[in-house]
Amino acid sequence: MTCDVGIVTAGLKPEERSYIKANPVDVEDWGTLTATFSDGTKATIFSGDMIMGGVRNLIETFTSGGALFANITPNTHLVSYQTSEEKLASVYITEKVDRKTGWQYVCLEEEWTRGYLQEIQDFMECAATGRQPLSDLALAYETIKVNYAGYWAAEEGRRVTL
Question: How far is CA 40 from CA 60, 109, 144, 148, 149, in A?
Fold first, then answer.
């Protein structure tokens, strides 16, 4: 896998930050990771916390039999275009978006869309019934390995193989 990360907002002047709500401290606000799996399939993961109009987190996976695209943030449940702030003045759009005008990606049921409710539901069912969680330590371990390899690749500027 290869990876690149950075703190893009660090180089912005105050007047350039007027539409960007990110304010990272000791962490990157932009990253991209490309992974090639043992069967030759590939994935690109992109994350940006400083994108004009809010957060952007996308996953694209290409396989021999198809393609998968995940618009995590912004999701495309409801796309809005408004010319006036007043039209949706009382409507919450999504995190880090303070404007209602122009094209906006409204996150319907944000807690559900981002998986928070499903995580709590799974935890409570495990606590009540004693069953194993849907996402266990093995998955967490593999996820941390991929994250670490990505940061390692970014730091050394080379491909890292797991």
Answer: 15, 36, 22, 21, 18
